[in-house]
Amino acid sequence: MRLDRTFPLEDPAVEIPWRVSEAGFRMLVGGERLEQVVAGRLRQRCRLLGGLDADLTFHFSPIAGGQLREIELLRHPKRHREREFDDLQQRLERMLGPGERLEPRLGLHPAGARWQLGALRVTHEYYTAAGKDHEKVRFIHD
Predict the structure, then answer these.
(1) Consecutive H or E run containing 91
(2) Residue 111 belongs to what H/E stretch?
(3) How far apart are the first and last CA of the chain?
(4) Cβ proximity of 45 and 33 under 8 Å
(5) Cα distance between residue 126 and residue 142, in whole Å
(6) pLDDT tens profile 59-83
(7) Which of 6, 32, 40, 107 is a plausible cystine mate for 63, CB 3.0–4.6 Å?
(8) Neighbours of 80 (CB within 10 A)
(9) pTM for the full predicted model
């Protein structure tokens, strides 16, 4: 499996091709758990990366009749944030290999990482916005 061609999910058990249409994506994953966030963005609770349960947002571009271009995993940890961050970082490194380390934002947060795999860019970072902590992984297919 080449991550720059397909994105693997464990539940639902499917490999999603990058640039699949929104209609094709809906057929692949089934519709019962999909939530329409806004036009061109769908959200679903999934299992991935060796058993991690997370909400994923699937971004299609252009919005009307678009193709899958980004998958976003966003968490709002309240406790054990560094331990949870490190666990997710280790899961990503098992799948992607070692990444280029990013500087911690303002020295307050764990350092994230960045990967480039062909047309796929991946970033894992931690930040605070509007007084709330966020941990984000972005898989972007150019």
Answers:
(1) helix 81-96
(2) none
(3) 18
(4) yes
(5) 23
(6) 999 887 799 999 999 988 777 888 8
(7) 40
(8) 10
(9) 0.90
